Amino acid sequence: MLQSSPHISSPKEQTRDGIDRRQYERSFVPVAGRLLLPSGAEHTCQVVDISEGGIALTCPVETEFGDKIIVYLDDLGRFEGQIIRFIPNGFAIETQLVANQRQRLVDRIKWLKQKKTDAERRFFPRRIPAQIELSDNTSMTVETGTKIQCTILDISVTGAHVQTNKRPRLGTHVTVGRMVGRVMRHTLEGIGIEFVTAG
């Protein structure tokens, strides 16, 4: 079953002596995809982070440590790996890529990051909200009416990155200020929201 434990996405972990053994740099790219479980069941998923040695994914399904997973990620391709760690609402898999596959992945991640940066710079410049918006009293309202305390890390005309300890499920509609949006991804800090209309 899914369990909560420290988040990782690469095969080298921090050992008992406190030394960080991670071999590859993690990249945070908002990529969605599909995964295939050993049972043959298929589910949608979202990348939390990815490296040349592994992928952390949100996908609230029941799995077992060591399960072999096949993942198809938008713009990145197909990956196979074993579950080596559980994280909130998901898990991390270790992948075994040969040198040319690793290089293609690195190049593709760089391309995605640049594409996202260029699009935001050209059309939707992001900004850090005024200090009053960053106060501890900021909250968002979930579609059920529940209010969740949060902090707006950055915001644009298309969405926001919100820091919160409570992460609504992907696709959940939330209201931040007068803006209505839906949860598109889970991040280390909280959630990414895509605005759909003004409230």
Notes on the structure:
- This protein is mainly beta and 199 residues long.
- It is built from one helix and 13 strands.
- It is 12% helix and 40% strand.
- A hairpin with a 3-residue loop joins strand 12 (179-186) and strand 13.
- The model is unreliable at 1-21 and 128-136 (pLDDT under 50).
- The chain is globular, with a radius of gyration of 18 Å.
Main traits of this protein?
199 residues, mainly beta, Thrombin, subunit H, 2 domains, 7-stranded antiparallel β-sheet, 6-stranded antiparallel barrel, 1 helix, 13 strands, 40% strand, globular, disordered N terminus
Highest-level CATH class of the largest domain: Mainly Beta
Helical coverage, percent range: 10-25%
CATH superfamily membership of the largest domain: predicted glycosyltransferase like domains
CATH architecture name of the largest domain:
Beta Barrel
- Give the DSSP E fraction (strand runs of 2 or more residues): 35-45%
Shape: globular
| Largest sheet: number of strands, sense, barrel closure | 7 strands, antiparallel
Summarize model confidence as the mean pLDDT.
77
Return Rg in Å. Answer: 18 Å
Number of domains: 2
Return the structural class: mainly beta
Number of helices: 1
Question: How many β-strand stretches?
Answer: 13
Low-confidence stretches: 1-21, 128-136
Distance between the termini: 39 Å
Q: For the largest sheet, list the strands in their spatial order.
A: 8-7-11-12-13-10-9
Name the helix and strand elements from N-terminus to C-terminus, one letter apiece: EEEEEEHEEEEEEE
